[in-house]
Amino acid sequence: MSNPVLSNVVENNQGYISSTPMSVQGTVNKLFLMFALLCVSFGVVFYQFSLGYMDKVMMLTTVGAIVGFVLAMIIIFARKALHVLVPLYAFCEGMFLGGISASYNAQMPGIVAQTVALTFLALFSLLGLYKAGLIRATEKFRATILTATVAIAVFYIVAIVLSFFKISVPVLYTSSPFAIAFSAIVCVVAALNLIIDFDFVERGAMSGLDKSYEWYGAFGLMVTLVWLYVEILKLLSKINRR
After folding, report:
1. b or e along 151-178 (b: 16 or more beta carbons within 10 Å of the residue's beta carbon)?
2. pTM value surpassing 0.85
3. How far is CA 128 from the centre of its chain?
């Protein structure tokens, strides 16, 4: 899910101008590097799945998910050694996404390509709307999206806890119209988090944040894109099962 700490970084550094400030282009370059690392680990795990090495794929997927989550928490709350931790995070997320994508694609051939296309469509569409000034990250907008994001996170945590007691939440696993509508809403919330990420990068560059925050901005965008990809993948799988 998107990083709720991003919007506070600029406010906490108001009045501070770095001698080597971050830039929008620098953030984009780092995002491309993260994407390349993600694609490498994604491809490796996906290929291992195609060879039938299920145990290895399961191990890599699990390690990617756990280590990626731990790294994300360290990045958010420590904000140290970003040039090392953020690329590692991207590599781990690629392992995680490669495993779950291969599993979905084995059941529904072509679903991964559709998910990738829709994820990038959402990214560039919202970037276009943001640059055109049609959607702005106002205080009310940020508060609304943050509230919705936290609510979804809490819902998922509760569902995970219930699963330990063999209690499933139908809206997450069935393909009913209500379950599809829920997934669609989550996809919209995930996509709108991109506006907050764009705003952080733009305001950070204008405020003169240190160049290290280019990694932080790229990290925020990557977190949101990973979340959006997973939610679109789940939404398409529900639709395909109908």
Report:
1. ebeeeeeeeeeeeeeeeebeebeeeeee
2. yes
3. 19
